[in-house]
Amino acid sequence: QVQVVESGGGLVQPGGSLRLSCAASGSSFNFYVTDWYWYRQAPGKQRELVAAIPRSGATTYADFVKGRFTSSRDGTKKMVYLQMDNLKPEDTALYYCDARTLGRDYWGQGTPVTVSS
User: Fold this and answer.
1) What does the alpha-carbon distance between residue 48 and residue 116 come to, in Å, rounded to a whole number?
2) Stretch 6-24: mean pLDDT, rounded?
3) Which of 16, 37, 65, 114 fits as disulfide partner to 98, beta carbons 3.0 to 4.6 Å?
């Protein structure tokens, strides 16, 4: 089994920044054969893809976060990050990390982000 845990969410004012972290662990987990995805789900809305971080190749971002969000991966720490800058109230959502490895998706419980003055 693979366990995924997100952290770093919180309350921030418009224009502020947050950095989300995602860690995965488990006996069958191999960081280097894992593709990572950040999703978010706002109240009353469907879950939407924010960023895709493949094991090789370039990271891609949804249009609504391009230029504001940046994702990175740290092979040493076996973690993935989502740096969110210039946050807007419409970024308020529960943010999830998806670790896709060996043909399966493993999800965390999500970390809440609230952007409000």
Assistant:
1) 21
2) 97
3) 37
SS3 assignment, position 99: strand
| Per-residue pLDDT reduced to its tens digit, 62-88 | 999 999 999 999 988 889 999 999 999
End-to-end alpha-carbon separation of the chain, Å?
Answer: 40
Question: For position 29, what pLDDT does the model report?
Answer: 86
Q: Closest by alpha carbon to 21, among 114, 104, 108?
A: 108
Q: Can you read off the two tokens belonging to residue 95?
A: 């943010």
For the cut 90, the answer to whether the pLDDT of residue 27 exceeds it is no
What is the Cα–Cα distance from 1 to 58, expressed in whole angstroms? 27
Dihedral pair phi/psi, residue 75, rounded to 5°: -70, -30
Q: Which two tokens stand for residue 71?
A: 């994702």
